[in-house]
Amino acid sequence: MAKKIPHRLYLTEEQMPTQWYNLRADMKEKPEPMLNPATGKPVEPQDLYPVFCEKLAHQELDDTTRFIDIPEEILEMYKNYRPSPLCRAYSLEKALGTPARIYFKFEGNNTSGSHKLNSAIAQAYYAKEQGLNGLTTETGAGQWGTALSEACCYFGMPLTVYMVKASYEQKPFRKSIMETFGASVISSPSHTTEAGRKILDANPGTLGSLGCAISEAVEKAVTTGGYKYVLGSVLNQVLLHQSVIGLESEKAMEILGEYPDIVIGCAGGGSNLGGLIAPFIRDKITGKADPRLVAVEPVSCPSLTRGRFVYDYCDTGKITPMAKMYTLGCTFAPSPIHAGGLRYHGMSPALSKLYHDGYMEAVAVGQTKVFEAATFFAKYEGILPAPESAHAIRAAIDEALKCKESGEAKTILFGLTGTGYFDMTAYNSFQEGSMSDYIPTDEELEKGFAELPTIPGIQE
Amino acid sequence: MAKKIPHRLYLTEEQMPTQWYNLRADMKEKPEPMLNPATGKPVEPQDLYPVFCEKLAHQELDDTTRFIDIPEEILEMYKNYRPSPLCRAYSLEKALGTPARIYFKFEGNNTSGSHKLNSAIAQAYYAKEQGLNGLTTETGAGQWGTALSEACCYFGMPLTVYMVKASYEQKPFRKSIMETFGASVISSPSHTTEAGRKILDANPGTLGSLGCAISEAVEKAVTTGGYKYVLGSVLNQVLLHQSVIGLESEKAMEILGEYPDIVIGCAGGGSNLGGLIAPFIRDKITGKADPRLVAVEPVSCPSLTRGRFVYDYCDTGKITPMAKMYTLGCTFAPSPIHAGGLRYHGMSPALSKLYHDGYMEAVAVGQTKVFEAATFFAKYEGILPAPESAHAIRAAIDEALKCKESGEAKTILFGLTGTGYFDMTAYNSFQEGSMSDYIPTDEELEKGFAELPTIPGIQE
């Protein structure tokens, strides 16, 4: 093609999206409604008010409004790090010897180091707009906690982060960065909540879990005046905010005269993937185009590729509403792989539905192959990816190598969600050859499925 | 002004500079020549061949060629992370309530985390072009070692990094990242060199020093077939490569219809500052404009503000040529502040001359005030700065506050050289209130000056 494609394309501020895109509005079959665990009835916005901001509760349940204006104050903070670049991986293509054209949307150029900031800003803003006194959240790997700390600091909103004790102790720098942004970081389980005390009494030496940290953060929010709880993935509102990733990608590709044959994203709770593929899913649903959309998950936590499409709790503590999604069961405890952000038992209900209905594919990859791809990518493209992001790199390289065999010059787009500066322990273990893949046995999965909830008349 | 100025302006690839600018060509009085320590005579290119690549030796001594073409292969790698953004600090301005317009050129959006990559790529490329077998270097804080590892990996050039033992032990992740890029990292002092063994014999428990690491790296280079030594600051060649920072800034400001009243950069060896101010120094020399150019150094290592403008060795080991520069004496041991990149006893000879001739100002700031500025900046601009870069932020904020008092709407441009992800220990110590400033006494400085070299007929 005649057009000279730059290595890195940045949209101008004027070209940035000013509305989020709600992909549920275009789904022919909507995701099943969330259910209130107490009544088994579909959740109404006011059921969510005790935990969530009102505006966010409405965004959560709104599956008909196609575009939602991004408030000016949010756009203002977005402009401090967005638009993010659409990158052409020329060096990687050359190193692979592939005829494929590889693009990636890079979300790591901000201090939080990942795409999580796109939703953190929105959630902190709505909390401020509602006049709240503060927010609580949990963090595992630390990307979400960092992003929310940054956003809350900007809007002057107090924040308490429950950080899984294992991370708290292994990643002291993640804690420091959150504290630099003024957040109060508590090792979970803690004595600050009933839930934490109960767990500590039963098992004083525990290193905590994401499920426990969620329970503490929710308890703290509902028992502290003017506090609400926020979450960085899985939820519909998060996918909505993350649609800026996909909208910018679509626009940038349009400027380049390109359209992806394959769109690839890593998938934990689905926040990045749902945002990246949003406009392309739309094209697929409306028949405008037919790109392949690929979710990449770790073999150790294979919710899409080996999970069940059923109603389940969103948290381990079974206090959240139930959602119909691909799940390994909320008590499934994934092995401690280095991509902590992908260790979630379920998957965004909207993405689950799209996968179920055949709009999306899924592959599972082992972490050794993932770090091999990460290191190769770093060598040629000069970006050190987060372990989570590297799952997408692995799949993109595999597709590019298939193109090399077939001679097809496909256009591949993948999401590079973040950087790996706080994950050097993982890179170390890869270099030392001491990294292993963890593939759960069928028996282990069965244990998780055995604890799936029963809901009279809906799921027996 | 009518023009809408974006938060972040990225030049297009076509607008990127294709030549480096050699500021010495425009200096009315050139910097004094480097002297060969054995003969006391000015250094010739061939004197440098045993240590440096030939092309780089010529760049080092060329003070007449104004523009030098950037080779295509270097431009290709530059395009993987350049152009870097020129940022308008709207949020910071608002928080300060200043009428000043604050711009910063952000060089931290690459995996090495700093501007060092601009010269690392050039040096690795010329090594490859000359068909060398490998390179050696030293690293203190780790930014230069990381940048060079990344560049050498890209060009397939083996690299050995001597890392000061104190850093090697305190910053294991810096080591990991270099190893991820294939570099061999050795704790210095080591048993791999005569220089290292001598120091270890005399003081087995030593934590090393930059001077010792330089000695080891140089020895390794000259005693290993086909190896040369490279350095990330101080040298003329480095300032030349770093001119891309200033050239891009100048171009971007021109597009915005702006011109800086004040240009501010942190100064250790001068690599960033020399690159940033290059085109503006030129305007000043030629009389086209008269911006204030400000070097910011730590009070703990005040080479410009309290040093002497004399001939001195560039290294502690006294094995390099002597250069006329502002220096505290090559045996001066600065306190272990957190901005390791600014702990250098001397200053780029070209910048020293410009400072001496009145083209540049200098201020010294204490690290507590620096981290206060860093934290404030992070809160509003969402970028966590490296401690080195934060020196420039401190000075920029001080200038902006002066504008607030005087009501002047000055245009301030500063260089944000890098990110602080590997410096969280420093941020911790600031938050805990345990950070102190170190101001050397006059007696301490006199000890350093006492060891300045004497050169018959030149410096008695």
From TrEMBL, chains A, B:
<protein>
    <recommendedName>
        <fullName>tryptophan synthase</fullName>
        <ecNumber>4.2.1.20</ecNumber>
    </recommendedName>
</protein>
<comment type="similarity">
    <text>Belongs to the TrpB family.</text>
</comment>
<comment type="subunit">
    <text>Tetramer of two alpha and two beta chains.</text>
</comment>
<dbReference type="GO" id="GO:0005737">
    <property type="term" value="C:cytoplasm"/>
</dbReference>
<dbReference type="GO" id="GO:0052684">
    <property type="term" value="F:L-serine hydro-lyase (adding indole, L-tryptophan-forming) activity"/>
</dbReference>
<dbReference type="InterPro" id="IPR006316">
    <property type="entry name" value="Trp_synth_b-like"/>
</dbReference>
<comment type="pathway">
    <text>Amino-acid biosynthesis; L-tryptophan biosynthesis; L-tryptophan from chorismate: step 5/5.</text>
</comment>
<dbReference type="InterPro" id="IPR023026">
    <property type="entry name" value="Trp_synth_beta/beta-like"/>
</dbReference>
<comment type="function">
    <text>The beta subunit is responsible for the synthesis of L-tryptophan from indole and L-serine.</text>
</comment>
<keyword id="KW-0456">Lyase</keyword>
<dbReference type="InterPro" id="IPR001926">
    <property type="entry name" value="TrpB-like_PALP"/>
</dbReference>
<keyword id="KW-0057">Aromatic amino acid biosynthesis</keyword>
<dbReference type="GO" id="GO:0004834">
    <property type="term" value="F:tryptophan synthase activity"/>
</dbReference>
<dbReference type="InterPro" id="IPR036052">
    <property type="entry name" value="TrpB-like_PALP_sf"/>
</dbReference>
<keyword id="KW-0028">Amino-acid biosynthesis</keyword>
<dbReference type="Pfam" id="PF00291">
    <property type="entry name" value="PALP"/>
</dbReference>
<dbReference type="GO" id="GO:0030170">
    <property type="term" value="F:pyridoxal phosphate binding"/>
</dbReference>
<keyword id="KW-0663">Pyridoxal phosphate</keyword>
<keyword id="KW-0822">Tryptophan biosynthesis</keyword>
<feature type="domain" description="Tryptophan synthase beta chain-like PALP">
    <location>
        <begin position="80"/>
        <end position="418"/>
    </location>
</feature>
